[in-house]
Amino acid sequence: QVQLVESGGGLVQAGGSLRLSCAASGTIFGIKATCWYRQAPGKQRDLVARISKSGSTNYADSVKGRFTISRDNAKNTVYLQMNNLKPEDTAVYYCYVDGQFRDYWGQGTRVTVSS
Fold it and tell me: Would you call 51 exposed, middle or buried from its count of C-beta atoms within 10 A (0-12, 13-18, 19+)?
C-alpha cells in the first residue's frame, strides 16, 4: 500500500524558512491534485496549498507570497517551500493526494515558529 511520508518540519524563528517534503512510497495512479494542509492546536485542518495535475497552484490567502508548492514527478515528491515564517504558521502540516481510486494522507510533520 502506498504511503505518504512528510519530512522537513522543525523549530524555526519568525522570518525563517523551511522546506517540507512529501514522498510517496510508490506510484499513485491518476493523481488529480496534491495538497498541503495544516492543523494548529485546537483548530480544524485547513488547506494551505494545492497543485493540480496540470501544475496549476492555489494558496490560502494567509500564505500567498510566502509559500510555494512544487513537485518532482521523477521522485514522486511534492514540496512546500515556506519563507518568512510567522508564529501563526505553527501547526502540524499534512500532505494529501487525491488519487483516481482513493485519497491518501501523510502522518504529518510539525512546524513550530518562535517569535
Answer: buried
